[in-house]
Task: structure prediction
Amino acid sequence: MDDISNSDILQADHLIKKFDNFTAVNDVSISVKKGEIFGFLGPNGAGKTTTIRMLTTITTPTFGNITIAGYNIQKDRINARKYLGITQQHISLDKDITVRENIKHHALLQKIPRAEIEERIKEVSSLLGLEEYMDRTISSLSGGWKRKTAIVCSIIHRPKILFLDEPTAGLDTRSRHMLWDLIRMLNSNGTTIFLTTHYIEEAESLCDRVGIMNYGRIIALGTPKELCQKIGSMTVELIGDDGKIYNRYFPDRSSAKEFVQATTENYNIIRKTNLEDVFLEITGEDTAADKLVRC
Result:
């Protein structure tokens, strides 16, 4: 069941999650290939966290099927969970004990044989550069190093796919880029990454493919380049009479320049289209886009 070399490591079909009369996730289907970084982009409240909770077996779908490494989580949850790791948005570390003790605790929870634990801890702490912090308490660490410790705890059992729910939320720029480097390193070492974020630059910088979610649905899916090409690879920012910026999209720079030369409207700049533009164009909702963050 675990021969996933030529198949999707994750397959979710027609997921629905209802809370009483409220539908948080509405008919979401996702496939993630082994070795890619897949990004979930969307504003707060879009349904990203509920979706990731279903994908990681924390929450049971109201309807739909999920397969991880060939195992259907509804039928074989125990085996499916062996292949996944998760770092949730809210760090769940014991702040009063050391980094080493936290990692050991998670290793025991994952039922790693005691004879292997110390070697595993040495392996992951060296890989992620935690050696000098191992005997410090969690409460003494900065936000970035707390998050890094949480990621170490989630990979101690060597998962095939790592779910990161808003891993850089609340971090300063330096800590955020430190986490980006870590994510790239884990991926280069063979770990598939499923990343939820509302930071646009994060998705553009890290992800092979991106799914944009809004109001419980995936409204766009593809590589960042593909998504931008759907509305136009180049953007002309126009300045309206009210002083606001309005965008026009074009397939290439020459088309954008021709428009600028012919228009009588004031324009601000010609630039490449980004994922924020995509979100605005396909949702038409400025208020929702305000919840997205450009780093």
